[in-house]
């Protein structure tokens, strides 16, 4: 059994806030919309990360809440149950950055999204109670942006690239992204936000069309990197990585990925516009943010679904991993993690040692969802997921978890406390019910959705 974290709840909460994670998800091509998972706290935003959701429906837990897993983040945000999935697009929200212009948009009413008047960088809007959201069309005036269009990726550009499909059973949802092959037996590099929240992952090799189930080797939420292992894969052609050449402003580059989640690779040509950039990607409602540093900035048309895909140099070698984009409807400025930094994180994950930000495999899962922080900071349960350890122990919505293995917890520290445990560990959970009665039960933690 892994010993629980012996820091105080305040220290744990501070550590979690120091390494937050957030991701913004977008509307599906078929018009269905979804809600916005997120981790962490909320400094001022710069850009919105792009991860494509193909079929995103309302969560089945009843109210907006944070689904607690044993992660380094605060929790996994679940949206409002009953939210319509018939809205056409996602709304925009105000996002400011190092460029002129901001974006303003309104949450759509149920059934269809309301148009916003963006004139800068756009980010998807959050979900309102029982409401779908809409994406404001508008134009973009952000500087250093591109109007270049994507084309179908060539055979050469497709070598060593995979298309990633994920299922999120706790939310009845699915997502799509891209990945890079690192080894012939199916070690895959992608963004953490591509697979975050997933309960099953399917990976298709672009050049052969072969599809494999995948397991999570590990993730680093602060670096936005995840490593997957394909099941029973062999003879794959790894991507050609360039870890020695110096990248310079003006270099020609091409972003390759599963743009739009269509299942077909596209290639977006552009150039490096800046190096060593630091950005903050935020949740669409203005809360929760993650800062990424030492990024390559490009003016290629990086789109939803490209996340986790390669940024290629003029020789067709991978120099970065596409991870974020600030966008209006016409212009996009993209950002990529350098391949050197990505591989450094891969090595840390492969070492098998967990840290404040690295999770090995799937995180331990209790099966509860906490709502917005209460006035006293208590871990008030908004929902208990059916079939989980919490449900088996008798916890119900309206209960308040007070301690884990006699360590007092709050809504902000519960997730970080559980991060100190492994799947299969038995923990004593103490709580008070709505009537004020105290309870304690031993539960065995199960594997939760990907961190």
Q: Might you state the CATH topology name of the domain at 151-279 and 292-358?
A: Thrombin, subunit H
Helix content: under 10%
Quickly give the CATH architecture of the domain at 151-279 and 292-358: Beta Barrel
Radius of gyration: 21 Å
End-to-end Cα distance, whole Å, is 20 Å
Assign the CATH class of the domain at 151-279 and 292-358: Mainly Beta
Count of separate DSSP helical elements: 6
Low-confidence stretches: 1-5, 12-67, 71-146, 283-288
- Mean pLDDT equals 72
Largest sheet: 9 strands, antiparallel
The portion of residues forming beta strands comes to: 25-35%
Category by helix and strand content = mainly beta
Number of strands: 26
What characteristic shape results from the CA principal axes? elongated
Organism: Cryobacterium frigoriphilum
Biased composition (Gly residues): 123-139
Region (Disordered): 83-149
Pfam families: PDZ_2, Trypsin_2
